[in-house]
Specification:
Number of helices: 10
Helix content: 40-55%
Distance between the termini: 18 Å
Largest sheet: 6 strands, mixed
Order of helices and strands: HHHEEHHEHEHHEEHH
Oligomer: single chain
Shape: globular
CATH topology: Uracil-DNA Glycosylase, subunit E
Strand order of the largest sheet: 1-3-2-4-6-5
Structural class: alpha/beta
């Protein structure tokens, strides 16, 4: 979804920049094709009962998860044990997006379960939520070998899946943790230290994004926790008051 001219002018007046995401790399079409494929009707169409709407929502999630499970759009599928789809409240006010699964996540099929995940849980708790209250996903659904950062082609191959998750959750705010997540969601090459703590807008969904340091970085440099605390307070304010 693109931001309308009227909305762009409003955001400009509020000093909130609108960022443009990078274009998909030629050849990385599978995830995009799956994303654009016809599917069951949207929730809230004429004649839907509440039970029908719930079943339709579950159906869309199940279809998306099945497509992630069967995805072979990049080389990461060759070495994965389990795709890491995402977990949490599918109607959450807060969506947290990390970089990529690690070894533990690859084994268990769930994001942020190691030491970084324990610290992320504390960050979530400080906002007044439990882990089950928010939705947690990654830019890339399969673990890169050796714990390396995902390559550009890998993030592009997975991008349509994440966009669909954002559309389905419709959070009030997205917290991008780490440089890879922030750069991909915002379509920029700025350093995380330069963009953290600023409210920006996700082009496809028009949802506010706030970037901050990754929990793994905070484990290495705990003095930055105070900086992240300020970012979390801003996230809390957005949830309570909007942008």
């Amino acid at each position: 979804m693109r931001v309308s001219l009227k909305k762009s002018q409003m955001l400009k007046t509020m000093s909130i920049p609108v960022w443009t995401a990078r274009k998909v790399i030629p050849g990385q079409k599978m995830a995009e094709d799956i994303f654009l494929a016809p599917e069951i009707s949207e929730v809230g169409s004429s004649g839907d009962s509440s039970i029908d709407a719930i079943n339709a929502s579950i159906g869309r999630w199940n279809l998306l998860q099945e497509n992630v499970l069967n995805c072979t759009a990049c080389e990461l599928h060759q070495s994965r044990k389990n795709p890491v789809f995402g977990v949490g409240n599918r109607q959450a006010d807060l969506m947290i997006v990390g970089e990529a699964p690690g070894v533990d996540e690859d084994i268990q099929g769930e994001p942020f379960i190691g030491p970084s995940g324990q610290l992320l849980n504390k960050m979530i708790f400080s906002l007044g939520f439990s882990r089950e209250d928010v939705y947690i996903a990654n830019i890339v659904k399969c673990a890169p070998s050796g714990g390396r950062k995902p390559k550009t082609g890998e993030t592009e191959a997975c991008s349509a899946f994440l966009i669909r998750q954002i559309e389905l959750v419709q959070p009030k705010v997205i917290l991008a943790v780490g440089a890879t997540s922030a750069k991909k969601l915002l379509g920029c090459d700025d350093r995380i230290s330069d963009i953290r703590g600023q409210v920006r807008i996700h082009e496809q969904s028009s949802i506010p994004i706030l970037a901050t340091f990754h929990p793994a970085y905070l484990l290495r440099k705990p003095t930055e926790k105070r900086t992240v605390w300020g970012d979390l307070l801003l996230v809390k304010k957005i949830i309570a008051e909007g942008v």
